[in-house]
Amino acid sequence: MNAQFLKSKFDQGLTYEDYLATDEAKAEPWRKIYEQISLTDAQRSLVERFTRDMPVLISSGIWCGDCAQQCPLLERIAEANSRIKLRYLDRDAHMDLAEQIMICEGLRVPTVIFMAEDFEPVSILGDRTLTRYRAIAARQLGASCPLPGAPVPVGELAGTLQDWLDEFERVQLLLRLSGRLREKHGD
Strands 54-60 and 84-90, how do they pair? Predict the structure, then answer.
């Protein structure tokens, strides 16, 4: 994946609300999770201090339980700093991207592509964070994807939010310490 390809995909991506509007019937579980979660004051303060632009592209499925349980968390993080720009793409409608970001040879969602301001790829994290995997393993779920709207324990939701926030912070620090970007920005 090169920067030009990623910029093209980012430009085709939808904002959170526009993405949910593509299927209002399936958007309700997303909205419920969004209303359940918020950043703590410390988390918000951390994100507010980000100084590098960070385009983030999310390959998703509005029908997917993991997406419904995690993408609203990404949205909450992005709301804390205008330098974070999220865009959502339907995985099945953008197979040219999905096939390049497969995880363990699977077309998993959500898969999140973190980029530098010039759309150079920085990190790809996908389908579930460590907290989500631990919780699923503890419950020994047989299904590969929980149903949208299935209850999510508050501790799991908060832990998953922190996992995602940690990745946003890791990427922001990588961007801040990048020799290429430090030279460009004179810092």
Answer: parallel
Q: How far apart are CA 30 and CA 76, in angstroms?
A: 12
Indicate the pTM of the whole model.
Answer: 0.91
Name the token pair of 73. 């968390």
Q: Which of 84, 86, 72, 100 is nearest to 169 (CA)?
A: 84
Alpha carbon distance 79, 86 (integer Å): 10
Question: For residues 84 and 81, what is the distance between their CA atoms, to the nearest angstrom?
Answer: 6
Strands (E), the chain: 54-60, 84-90, 111-115, 121-126
Cis peptide before 110 (omega within 30 of 0): yes
Beta bridge partners of residue 124, listed in sequence order:
113
pLDDT of residue 132: 86
DSSP 121: E
Enumerate residues 6+ apart whose C-beta is below 8 A from 50.
81, 83, 84, 168, 172
Its CATH architecture, for the domain 3-185, is 3-Layer(aba) Sandwich (3.40)
